[in-house]
Amino acid sequence: MTVKTRFAPSPTGYLHVGGARTALYSWLYAKKHQGSFVLRIEDTDRERSTEESVQAILDGMQWLDLQHDEGPFYQTHHFDRYKELIQQLVEQGKAYRCYCSKERLDDLREQQQASKQRIGYDGHCRNLSCDEQDSSQPHVIRFKNPLEGSVVFDDLIKGTISVNNSELDDLIIARTDGTPTYNFTVVVDDSDMEISHVIRGDDHVNNTPRQINMIEALGRQVPKYAHVPMILGDDGKRLSKRHGAVSVMQYRDEGYLPQAVLNYLVRLGWSHGDQEVFSVDEMIELFDLKDVNRAPSAFNTDKLNWLNQHYIKSLPAEEVLKHLQFHINEQQLDVANGPDIKDLIPEMAERVKTLKEFVLAVRYFYHDFDEFDANAAKKHLRPVARQPLELAKQKLSETHDWTAGNLHSIVSQTAEELELGMGKVGMPLRVAVTGAGMSPDLGITLEWIGKERVLSRIDQALDFIAQREANS
Ligand code: GLU
Hints:
Layout: E1 4-7, H1 17-32, E2 36-41, H2 51-64, E3 70-74, H3 79-91, E4 95-98, H4 102-114, E5 140-143, E6 150-155, E7 159-164, E8 172-174, H5 182-192, E9 197-201, H6 208-217, E10 224-228, E11 231-232, H7 248-254, H8 258-267, H9 280-286, E12 297-298, H10 301-314, H11 317-330, H12 341-349, H13 355-361, H14 374-380, H15 386-398, H16 404-417, H17 422-434, H18 442-449, H19 451-471
Helix pairs in contact: 1-9, 5-6, 8-10, 11-12, 11-13, 15-16, 15-19, 16-17, 16-18, 17-18, 17-19
């Protein structure tokens, strides 16, 4: 069988983590079986669908590099096809016009609630004869769900699912204005596009028996289904905005690499032994729907951070740089005015978990600052630091060898001459030149900041100390 999967988001918001995971699983399954992956935008809800949201979905998919082989298809382009098949079902007696008024349906629901019956349409118009019908009157079209028997399917994640037809009512497939409804459009497209495997969130599992009945009524091949359990936040509640970033692009904005997000998403509900790190090729090779957990998975930000740092450390610097560029632009880092930022990657990879942190943490290599971090200054730019800073400045100004190793020895010589521990020179100097207390190795830091800036920043720190002395 040729495997064809699809991702079918409704463009009513951004691409969220749950959707991205469903897309990833569908994509992996197609790749694993040398099949194809379809992107279908389910935009029939004209009121809730927006252009921005379509774009957000396309951007999210592109950022994750989940390329589709076919599409994107838009359901709004298929209205004629849906109409044609609705008409066909009506002509074949597999669907019917329903003239029930809203009042009648409201009363029906109330009665059913009061007598604790199953809520659903009672089939009032199911058997109206032609004489009893006047298609010029407002009506909807309902699918004639079988009355007997049951729908049984083998969900590739959840196992066998069986639902009695007596529990399914006659679903509306076309509204009064003639527009088709979600369950019908999905069925038409899944069969027209010859989707072999429908992999989607388990919020759709209750729709599946109805969809299977409709596919059968259309005389089409029923695909295989796999319903992926939902994602919960760290607190066990369904993942939502309350838990922080839920849109995929927000992860980019927060400084995550797409490689880390994909790796994180694949593990969110799927495992292969106790392996945590998977390249995309490994995911394709090892992913299988039968290894997807049946239980919901819980989001874990620490793990995502860990993976992100892993990828910052291990991906080629060019690749990290490609993604760093977004943050460089966002934070207007003047990278032309300092060391080659690519050279900073191995050093910074040990110190930061996100690319956003990275760009914030290297700002002092490119931009001067007016203020010192208050805590670091309080601790290290004290009057006792004046002498070590002055001597270090003198030595640094005299040297012609501005390389990390030599700069490091200058700092130790300063400490030795003043009979101080290294920290008593190193820390004030670090705060003086970086504005705060954290940086890579001091020799490297000094080298990268450059002589002119180092000297003027030491002056700035000495002024700060003088001011402090004057105020005390
Ligand atoms: N458009 C539906 C949604 O975004 C998904 C439909 C499906 O996967 O069958 O929830």
